[in-house]
Amino acid sequence: MSAVISTAGELTNGQVPLGEAVAFWILGPVSLAGAIGMVLLRNAVHSALSLVATMMSLGMFYLIEQGPFLGLVQIIVYTGAIMILFLFVLMLIGRDASDSIVETLRGQRWAASLFGIGFALLVALSVGRAFKGSKPVNLNSATTNANGQNVNSIAALLFTKYLFAFELTSALLIIAAVGAMVLAHLERETPKRTQKEIARERIRSGRPQPLPGPGVLSSHDAIGTPALLPDGSIAPESVMASTPGVRELPALDNPDNIR
Amino acid sequence: MSHLLLAETAPIHAPSVAYSSLSPIFIVLGAALVGVLVEALVPRAERYAVQMVVTIGGLTAALVAVGLLHNTAETTVAGALAVDGAGLFIQGSVLVLSVMSVLLIAERSVDVGSAIVASAAVVVGSPTDRRLARTDRVQTEVFPLLLFAVAGMLIFPISNNLLLMFVALEVLSLPLYLMAGLSRRRRLLSQEAALKYFLLGAFASAFFLYGLALLYGYANSVDLPAILNASKASPKSDVLLYVGLALLLVGLLFKAGIAPFHSWTPDVYQGSPTPVTAFMSSCTKIAAFGAIMRVLYVGFNATAWNWRPIVWAVAIASMAVGGIFGLTQTDLKRVLAYSSIAHAGFILVGLVALDKDGIASVLFYVLTYGFSTMAAFGVLMLVRDADGEATHLAQWSGLARKSPFVAAVMTVLLLSMAGIPLTSGFIAKFYVFKAAFHVAAPLVVIALIFSAVAAFYYLRIVVLMFFAEPPENGPTIAIPGWSTAVALTFGMVVTVVLGIFPQPILDLAAKAATLVG
User: Which residue from A208, B95, B425, B428 has the least number of CB within 10 angstroms?
Assistant: First the structure.
């Protein structure tokens, strides 16, 4: 980290150092391509992965711009935690559950694209105009003050100027926790079955061995994919009936569709 | 490297917090935390009663605290919050109306349990769902969620710094998204409403954040007074200021349900449980207007020439959308939703004035509108058929023959919304138009035309209730329990009394019309 800071520290007035310019021209197209791919790709997993590319490039941008805290948080929290959660959810739901492309409002797609592009142009042009002629400044000197460097300055701000906003975010966390419980927590109304009861029931059911796992990774990455038996036929018990996406798989009755 | 940094670091000094000025916020947040603990610790049978005591007790205590603070005018926590007359008036209005919405939520005699679902996590239409719908079990988390939303609404209009305003916006919105999905009847519609509100709300919040970032780029600060100073003195290009303000306004206008950012309003108002709709249409609107007022009057006072045309345009759009689309609705909850869009337009007319009279008239308007709309949604809860509330207009025809009293109450509330003399709605409209007349006479004329258009559809409902033939198997009128009766009577009395003796509240609003920052 200190290496990045010291190279960028040699910034002369009004000039972007070579290393930063090279990094920008490599990462810029990558992040843009990721963002466009995220919108255009049909497969949800590919979409999520291109968003990861965008977020990683953004994280690198922050690091280069001498925001080590922001850069690392971007990579650890967004790419590391949130996007991986996204991927988990996508795998659980089944990647074949694709969007319906029927337009419920006529002409909405065109109107949305038109307004979207118009808005992007408006913001890009006005922000571009606002920064025209302004000279790049070395952020190292801007974020280093009596409190120390970037990270220390952020900490100082959180506990002084933005104290109330910072403390208030704890209310947000509590709301989120309560909300998750409200939406997802089913209360147990019957007493929990003991291990003994479960074991007895299993032996009596006529199928003491565990159910086969799903066909994840053999041909598909969705948990709704059924496993194949040695003779190539489908093992229907290998998928849970409640898994969303099972119904969308065209392959269930014809094993040829799976291989 | 780390110990080197530590050695250089100067000690930081925590900002001073005026705990007394912020006491209403702390009381409501504290009550919300107690409510969460009640969920965890109190057995189900007693939970409902305990939650009621905690919620109403907390809100009332906060209201008393607001009353005790009435002369405060200061900024605190390093200038992040500005406790002043206008802010306290908004806080008081939010607290009074939230107590009324709690009373409506507490209604348990017109529907088994309440208007709130027994368990939100149970799959709609499953056997468990059908069984639970007949029990008096209630998802009592709705009370702490409401308290969190109220806390957000208390902070939102007194935030003097846009970052805090954003966090407060989220604190008030997140519980509302959840509460919108908690309806006991027509659960799929309610969940759709919650999802729509959540997605569009997140979209609007993103605009707010983008605007905040651009304004920071312009003023090098997110404090409203700092933005004002930068806009007065800056030799820089103003593009960032205007684009930032425009994006910021998108987020704020969305929350207040102002056209063209209103599209969520009818669907969400229709799908949410009726007491929650009442809460949203009164308290959220008041808090949002408090925040819009603070942003425009404190942060952008010097650039009024640039934002006034925008406010003109959205006010006209809002009155037009509310007035014209409201005419074509057949569901009473949607009619009230469009009415709230139209009213938002009228309130914006008062904001154009940019003086003390403007602030006072807006404060008075949001309060009276809050009472009328709260009581109107309360009446909606009483007219029922086998499927729950009978909100279709056809079911309301000839209601006066079945229950002249309910029809009369609804008539007074609708007349107040239409702005007929001797109701609070007339006084409110009169003062808003009077305040705006000297700076925006054409806008006031347009507003008068649209209030005539809107009056038509309120009167259409009145005529329907009194002169149309009742349908074959029409709705029945439920006898309200004590809590709804109290809330309805209070809303009704305030609507009439403020139409006849508005002076005390007008004086209070005029005295409160100060903004520090």
Answer: A208
Residue B135: phi and psi, rounded to 5, are -90, 170
Instruction: Give residue-wise pLDDT tens across range B95-150.
Output: 999 999 999 999 888 887 788 998 999 988 888 888 888 888 899 999 999 999 99
Contact criterion met (CB below 8 Å) for B425 and B416:
yes
Q: Which of A145, A164, A166 to mutate to test the interface with B (most CBs of B within 10 A)?
A: A164
User: H helices of B140-238, where?
Assistant: 142-155, 162-180, 187-219, 224-233
Amino acid identity, position B191: Q
Helices (H), B220-294: 224-233, 239-256, 264-271, 274-279, 285-294
Q: How far apart are CA A154 and CA A141, in angstroms?
A: 14
CB contact under 8 A, B15 and A172: no
A12 token code pair: 């002369």
Please spell the DSSP secondary structure of B391-459, one letter per residue: -BGGGGTTHHHH-HHHHHHHHHHHHHHHT-TTSHHHHHHHHHHHHHHTT-HHHHHHHHHHHHHHHHHHH
Which of A163, A172, A182 is facing B170, going by the closest CB pair? A172
Q: pLDDT tens, position by position, for chain A (259 residues)?
A: 444 444 444 444 557 778 888 999 999 999 999 999 998 887 788 888 999 999 999 999 999 888 889 999 999 998 889 888 888 887 777 655 555 666 677 788 889 889 999 999 998 998 888 888 777 777 777 777 767 778 888 888 888 899 999 999 999 999 999 999 999 988 877 888 899 998 898 888 888 888 877 776 666 666 677 788 888 777 777 777 665 555 444 444 454 544 4
Rounded CA-CA distance B76/A70 in Å is: 28
3-state secondary structure of B331: strand
DSSP letters of B56-108? HHHHHHHHHHHHHTTT--EEETTTTEEE-HHHHHHHHHHHHHHHHHHHHHT--
Rg (CA), chain B: 23
Strands B383-385 and B74-76: unpaired
Chain B residues 120-139 with a CB less than 8 Å from chain A? 120-122, 139
Cβ within 8 Å, pair A127-B214:
yes
Predicted structure pTM score: 0.90
- Distance, CA of A211 to CA of A228 (rounded, Å): 13
Helix/strand/coil percentages in chain A, nearest 5 = 60, 5, 35
- Please state, as a whole number, how many other Cβ atoms lie within 10 Å of the Cβ of residue B478: 17
Report yes or no: A64 and A216 within 8 Å, Cβ to Cβ.
Answer: no
Residue B476's H or E segment, with its range, is strand B476-477
Q: What SS3 class is residue A162?
A: coil
The CA-atom distances, in angstroms, between A199 and each of A194, A203, A204, A208, A210 are 9, 6, 9, 9, 12
* Contact call for residues B425 and B340 (beta carbons, < 8 A): no
How far lies B36's CA from each of B50, B131, B186, B326, B463, in Å?
11, 26, 27, 39, 47
B88 to chain A, closest Cα gap in Å = 18
